[in-house]
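In this section we walk through a basic example: taking a raw amino acid sequence and producing a predicted 3D structure, encoded as C-alpha cells. The instruction is simple. Fold the sequence below.
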Amino acid sequence: MKLSTKGKYALYAMIFLSQQEEGAAQSLKAFAPLGLPEAYLEQLLGALRKEGLVKSVRGAQGGYLLSRPPEKITARDVIEAAEGPISFSDCVTASQGACQKSENCPAKGVWEYLTDKINGLLDSITLSDMASQKLKDIS
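The resulting C-alpha cell sequence is shown next.
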C-alpha cells in the first residue's frame, strides 16, 4: 500500500492552507513554494472543494481557503477526498461479489482489521497537528 502523488499533494495543499491567515483566500500562485504543477493543483483543489474541505472565492482577491477549522479536518478526510476510500485490500471495500473468495477468505479479517486501524490512525491526525508537527503519540 502506497500513497499516490495525488494524496501527497492534497495533503501538502491542505497543510499550506491551514497555515494561512484565517479567512484569507489563497490564489493558485500563492501555492508556488510547494512546487506543485498549477494545473494539477487546480484539479486537486476542485476535488477537495467538491468534498467540502475547501471553499473557492471568485474575484481579484479570490482563491481557496479551508471550509472548516484545521482542527476539524483529518488526514483521512483529505486522502479520501483525493484518492477515494482507504483500504488495505480491495476486498474490504469492494461491492458484494467483487471477489470470489470473499465469503471464505481466511485473510479477510486481517484486511478488515488493518483497514480499521489505518483509518482510525488517519482520523486521529488533524491538519492542525500536521501543520504544527505535533503528531499524537500513537504507540
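Looking at the output, two observations stand out. Residues 5-132 form a domain with the Arc Repressor Mutant, subunit A fold (CATH 1.10.10.10). Strands lie at 54-57, 63-66. In the next section we compare this with other chains.
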